[in-house]
Amino acid sequence: MEISVKPQDLNWETLGFGYINTGKSFRAYYKDGKWDGGQVIEANTITISEASPAVHLGKQCFEGLKAYRTKDGSVNLFRVDENAKRLARSADQVMLPPYPEDAFVEAVKEIVRANEEWIPPYGTGATLYIRPFLIGVGDIVGVSPASEALFGIYVTPVGAYFKGGLQPAPFMVSEYDRAAPRGTGSAKVGGNYASSFKAGKEAQVNNFADSIFLDPATHTKIEEVGAANFFAITEDDVFVTPNHRQFYQVLQSTLYCI
Ligand SMILES: *Cc1c(COP(=O)(O)O)cnc(C)c1O
Predict the structure, then answer these.
(1) Which of 104, 206, 248, 251 has a 20 to 30 Å separation from 139 between CA atoms?
(2) Do 153 and 187 have their domain in common?
(3) Residue 165, domain member (yes or no)
């Protein structure tokens, strides 16, 4: 397999948020009611049936986390067990076989170790982004749950998301809803993103950084900003973030967020 760049060719300080093939990924398969042991493979592609429910029915979910190099050179993951739990909850929502949580944590550690040379040095702002995903595969024509599934992880080194630190940016309140009440909003599934791109595009052509999504039931409260979580700190220093009980009230049609 061709790898176009080597870790030693990278400038960690100016690294962007793009995909770099590191040459090693993780794959595990679910068939006949059980997961195989999974393994590190030297490929960054997958071959699946054209009838895979991930392709037609959106039966998939994913996670995102990072490995951080510390001052003493060791490598840390932040609450990887919580990502394992959330992937299992997402899988349950779209009826995919959950990947066992312990195996998830081990797989993340294994793939990070296998890609050790790609973990950016401490102090550069860069990190190793880790993207676990779970997709329904196999030959499914009707609308039925997946009987086969693939769990994979790719990693790729990324630079700091906000390069010049935090800058004020204008956001536009979207006309579109992102996830219905009692829908898939609390699951980390690709469909929630697919339904957000049109709003994001509209915001950009109108010179906004991105779109704000309101709660679909009342359209009076902020639920999500683009592809990111939203929080606010009030004048009284209260941290406010959307959850099932409390939403941040929309005060005006254009908000300036940092
Ligand atoms: C993953 C995700 C986020 C970020 O959540 P983290 O807990 O920081 O990973 C925010 N919004 C949506 C819709 C997401 O899927």
Answers:
(1) 104
(2) no
(3) no
